[in-house]
Amino acid sequence: MSTIFPEHFLWGGAVAANQVEGAYLTDGKGLSTSDLQPQGVFGPVVERHAGDSGIKDVAIDFYHRYPEDIKLFAEMGFRCLRTSIAWTRIFPQGDEGQPNEAGLAFYDRLFDEMARYHITPLITLSHYEMPYGLVKNHGGWGSRDTIDYFERYARTVFQRYRHKVKHWLTFNEINMSLHAPFTGVGLPEGSSRQAIYQAIHHQLVASARAVKACHEIIPDGRIGNMLLGGLLYPLSCKPEDMLETLQQNREWLFFGDVQARGAYPAYMARFFTDQNIQVTITPQDRTDLRETVDFISFSYYMTGCVTTDQALNNQARGNILNMVPNPHLASSDWGWQIDPVGLRLLMNELYDRYRKPLFIVENGLGARDKVEADGSINDDYRIRYLNDHLVQVGEAIKDGVEVLGYTCWGPIDLVSASKAEFSKRYGFIYVDRDDQGNGTLERRRKKSFHWYAGVVKSNGATLE
């Protein structure tokens, strides 16, 4: 069978520590910002008390069940698994002088298990969580001190796992901080744009320092950034809609511009002036930012439209990004519009802009799965969604885009980030747990499990 996918294409899946591990205070782990969001990114921030509980506290218990799950991923032929390190397992409060050995040892065991099956780890340093101690005692990313604490953490894990992990990411969906500041930068909802952009600047400097540390400690390693791929189309060809679309796309592309080009883009000077935002940037910051990522990774779930028509803007919907619906597209159960061609467009946009390899590290369909009387789960809708998107990845490769791999989001059911739901399922593997936390946590293969195994085995040749 012929295929246009590269010979060493990294097929796999992606999860996040706070959405699968559970064991939220086990082996010395500290409280993270995610632990204080038991109802998800859009829920309230809740102080934790002894004896209380949240659905993410157990999640799918990956912390204890990872050998079983890794074996299932290997059965599908995974060449790569993206996950994250829970920063609070390594530095429980974030500002300790020495790391927590029990936390470090857990990830040693996890990476060793992956190595048994020749699965390449792709590891995110900070995925929608940070130590709550840094928020409470230091002001989160609003404080310049947090740069140093993050660099210490990054250097600690690079040194520890330098022989086991060669592919790294800094911050998950770093541009999301504009829309959910507590999740992204540890600032309270309602923070000023001035405060948010200053915190984002600190995070961009920390990302660059992590890139430099990775290059020093793991010379044969590669480290990328991670963007929420929020590609927007103009709703009409009115020049005003075209201009507004340019400006709104720049709001998220700005992060990639800094991380891949090593400096703030010129257009941000006008943006800051127009918005009366004054970001403190030191000469050392500018030097630090010159250290650029090796590749661009991103999530892709949907596109949206932009219009200057305020009445239509009031209809906007989506996940973290509020987008005006595209009248030409269908939507998922959660109102996310399905646009496979948009993935090809995004890949071409990013590759033309940065000329660096791309890695699609999240893409998937959240849906309500039904367990049939015989125990089967016939998720043909998920197969169709993933097939259509992967066909467009192939088209982008034909366009000349260099792509390192594809890790679909949630290869095993997990707690959704936005609302901490189990009913919004992404996986090829069903986990017996519901939104109230009931269930046995039993794992079960869906129809898509066998389909994806065929795609990986054929290196994409079975796509239709």
UniProtKB/TrEMBL annotation:
InterPro entries given for it? GH, GH_1_N_CS, Glyco_hydro_1, Glyco_hydro_1_AS
- Residue numbers annotated as active site: E362 (nucleophile)
Quick one: a GO cellular component term? cytosol
Which of UniProt's keywords are assigned here?
Answer: Glycosidase, Hydrolase
* Listed GO biological process terms: carbohydrate catabolic process
Q: What is its EC number?
A: 3.2.1.86
Quote the Gene3D superfamilies the UniProt record gives. Answer: Glycosidases (3.20.20.80)
Q: Which residues cross the membrane?
A: none
Q: What EC class is this? A: hydrolase
Drop me one GO molecular function for this one. Answer: 6-phospho-beta-glucosidase activity
A Pfam family per the record: Glyco_hydro_1
Family (UniProt): Belongs to the glycosyl hydrolase 1 family.
Q: What is this protein called?
A: 6-phospho-beta-glucosidase
Q: Cite the source lineage.
A: Bacteria, Pseudomonadati, Pseudomonadota, Gammaproteobacteria, Enterobacterales
